[in-house]
Amino acid sequence: MIQPIRSYLRRTAAAIAVAAAMTVPSEAFAQFRWGAQAGVNVNNLKFKQELVTVDKSTGFSAGVTGEMMFPGIGFGLDIGLHYEMTGSKVHLGERKMWSSQGYGNEQLRMHYAVIPLHVRFKWTRLGGLEEKIAPLVYFGPEFSILAGHSKCDAMDFAGGTLALDMGGGVEIMRRWQLTAGYNMGMTYVVKAKVLTNYSARNRYWYVRGTYYF
């Protein structure tokens, strides 16, 4: 699965870069920089049917991100690689088919290597105010590769997932970025072994801080 994801990322990044370059004035050049990022999230597993209670849980993320902006128009791209811990507490013991096997309130944790690819817009023409604070928004896909998970034999864990990520925030003093966003899973992350169509997708809110070098 990793190779198709890498291939898709290369094709998508190339297509977006070419499209963006066609809109950039000839005197403008893309500016690229790397940064360190960390954050926390509040995660929920959204099952297809509400058979049992699911409690939200907190997780965290940390990694690196790269930003490429085109001066003068405010548009750009960001791509990175970070570790993300997600999951929720699932009350399997509420149903006899699981309680009879000894399952109760199971904390499901997933650990991912995440590759985001966002299109972003940053307000860069604020009469000089952007040197101190500049609003920004972003949107795009995220590709997650499962690196590990908690032990729960009642569930099968997907090896990788696809999500849509969106958010906004502010850039402070050209170095710090504070963002908040929502991640909407498009493919399942866990699936029950005893039911053919009982699966869940990730949904979580997050806040993150990034420092660019």
TrEMBL record:
Q: Extract the InterPro entries matched here.
A: Beta-barrel_OMP_2
Q: Which domain of life is it from?
A: Bacteria
Q: Say if the entry is tagged with keyword Signal.
A: yes
> Domain Outer membrane protein beta-barrel, which positions?
29-187
Keyword Signal, does the record have it? yes
The record's keywords, sorted A to Z, are: Signal
Segment forming the signal sequence: 1-30
Q: What is this protein called?
A: PorT family protein
Q: What organism is recorded for this protein?
A: Paramuribaculum intestinale
| Record lineage | Bacteria, Pseudomonadati, Bacteroidota, Bacteroidia, Bacteroidales
